[in-house]
Amino acid sequence: MAFIELNGVNKWYGQYHALRDVTLSVDKGERIVICGPSGSGKSTLIRCINALEGHHQGTISVGGTALTSDIKTVEGVRKSVGMVFQSFNLFPHLTILENCTLAPIHVKKIKKAQAEDLAMSLLERVRIGEQALKYPGQLSGGQQQRVAIARALCMQPDVMLFDEPTSALDAEMVKEVLDIMVDLAGSGMTMLCVTHEMGFARQVADRVVFMDAGQIIEMNTPDAFFRAPQHDRTRQFLSQILH
Amino acid sequence: MTGFVQTQSIDARTAPLAARRSLFRVLFGDVLSTVSTLVILFAVIALAPKLVSWGLLNGIWAGEGTQCTGAGACWAFLRAKYPFILFGIYPPGQYWRPIGLIVIFIGLTLYSLPPKNWKTSTLWAWVIGTVVALALMAGGVLGLEAVPTDSWGGLPVTLILTVLSLGLGFPLAIALALGRQSDLKTVKYICVAVIEGIRGLPLLSLLFIVSILLPLMLPDGLKIDKLLRALVAMTVFSAAYLAEVLRGGLQGLHNGQGEAADALSLSWWSKTRLIILPQAISKVIPPLTNTVVVMVKNTSLVLIVGLYDLLSAGRAALADPAWPAPFAETYGFIALIYFIICFSITRYTHWIERQNLFGVNR
Ligand SMILES: Nc1ncnc2c1ncn2[C@@H]1O[C@H](COP(=O)(O)OP(=O)(O)OP(=O)(O)O)[C@@H](O)[C@H]1O
Ligand SMILES: [Mg+2]
């Protein structure tokens, strides 16, 4: 059984049908890139995987646990799913180090010193160790996003979800974040990335998922996806973003 | 010129000093400043001679009530009565005890001012300090003579009511503010009803209601302390106002903060305690301190239920037939104490606003 299984998932915002019969399975170690036009339901899809949004129909299971509305089940799933947001969402009142140790200390009940060691090693890995005692407001966007990645990794998740992690960044900083993500992909992490960085998709993705109007329109290896898109809607989308 | 290429890099230079506005410009820089300066100047010139002759030249600095003839200020009255105004009818031989309470409260307040001391241990220091201070006032322990609350008065009562109504009201306010945002409709509406109900009442009527209703609700024979009754009224009053202030801070928070905490699998309580509340509270420090100022002044209303706070102790002192009741001097003295307390809080608010909490210039 795949690590993440979505089966016939439907979700509505009021009367708006945001996810329509979405079925997707992701194996351990797989890297999935999700793309599609604005409002197509990409964020909604990955936010359903860690229950930031609840779904109405169908089943979602992560690591063999089916997501229900039960809070213990949800918290259990979230422990194994890290998430990186477009707007970083670091905690501005905590230092970089405290941002990273918060969840290990309060959720996993790890000792402070041990959590700090772990956090420092991950901050080094995203090449930001020397900023550990600063506050998020003192860092550039690219640095903040790298901290956000380290913060998620501190929970030692099995899967990482990325929701347009580079969209809020200046061109100069996009690369420093993508480099970290490429590095992470190389380490065998299971990843679902919503992104418009097609170079990244080509380089690391095992599969590219194209969404439109709440549905998965097309899904293929990056090579086939970019070389020979099947659906009209996909071709139209690719021609727009690849010029 | 169409093309340009910089050939040398420009070194950073220090910023030019901002020119200070001269005092003359501040006072007479424009029409409005000039008019207000002149009006104030005129008022000072008109009043100063009277004040000097009343307060200094003709002032009576020492002596008996009979010496105060009304020609000048009767400072002798304050000299004789200040212990009573400050401590009410507390046994005179025991004044060191209310002084101890004042010292404890002021010391704890000063210690709590810098943000670096905002931690759990400070909270415990307040709890222990308050218990010690109240034990000191009440006595009956460690060989201290017992002094019933009926004999407490003056500044300690003002401080006790302020500190305890705010200290106990704050957690209540947090609960009310969070409840108001709850997804559970019943919880939400109960909180809204409590907050709006209390805010709709003047403190005066709340004091009456609690003083009259609380004894009725309790079984016969069980008397509860007047001070405690006033404290209950003031606590719920401050809780309702603080809750509204906190609501502003909660609403100002970006959704992403709660979502990030959720994504990290933090429980609701951890999320609220570690992420939501610290940020919400730090956003509303100025209006919070403003509420503190209001509550300090509100303590003077307990006079109405027969308690001797600073202001009522002053009025009681004036009733002494041996003196000619020098109102201006007494109320001036009391006003000065209130002013020192409230002005310090205001200055602190300005200072804290300029602190760059979390390394960010605000
Ligand atoms: N909380 C919400 N309430 C109501 N409608 C919502 C909500 N969140 C999203 N939607 C709607 O659902 C649809 C899908 O939104 P979603 O954020 O998943 O799109 P997206 O593919 O991530 O788009 P983008 O590229 O702009 O981020 C959009 O039409 C959006 O307006
Ligand atoms: Mg989105």
TrEMBL record, chain A:
Keywords carried by this UniProt record: ATP-binding, Nucleotide-binding, Transport
Name recorded for this polypeptide: Arginine ABC transporter ATP-binding protein
Family named by the database record: Belongs to the ABC transporter superfamily.
PANTHER family, alphabetized: AMINO ACID IMPORT ATP-BINDING PROTEIN (PTHR43166), PHOSPHONATES IMPORT ATP-BINDING PROTEIN PHNC (PTHR43166:SF4)
PROSITE patterns noted in UniProt: ABC_TRANSPORTER_1, ABC_TRANSPORTER_2
A Pfam family: ABC_tran
UniProt-recorded Gene Ontology molecular function terms: ABC-type amino acid transporter activity; ATP binding; ATP hydrolysis activity
ABC transporter domain segment(s): 4-238
Source species, domain of life: Bacteria
Organism this protein belongs to: Asticcacaulis endophyticus
From TrEMBL, chain B:
A Pfam family annotated for this UniProt entry: BPD_transp_1
Membrane topology: Multi-pass membrane protein
UniProt subcellular location: Cell inner membrane; Cell membrane
Keywords: Cell membrane, Membrane, Transmembrane, Transmembrane helix, Transport
The keyword Transport belongs to this UniProt entry's keyword annotation: yes
GO biological process: amino acid transport
Transmembrane segments: 23-48, 95-111, 123-144, 156-178, 190-215, 227-246, 292-311, 331-349
Principal localisation: membrane
GO molecular function: transmembrane transporter activity
All residue ranges annotated as the ABC transmembrane type-1 domain in the record: 155-349
GO cellular component, one term: ATP-binding cassette (ABC) transporter complex
Family annotation (SUPFAM superfamilies): MetI-like
Membership in a protein family: Belongs to the binding-protein-dependent transport system permease family. HisMQ subfamily.
PANTHER family per the UniProt record, alphabetical: INNER MEMBRANE AMINO-ACID ABC TRANSPORTER PERMEASE PROTEIN YHDY, MEMBRANE COMPONENT OF AMINO ACID ABC TRANSPORTER
Protein name, as recorded: ABC transporter permease
Annotated organism of origin: Asticcacaulis endophyticus
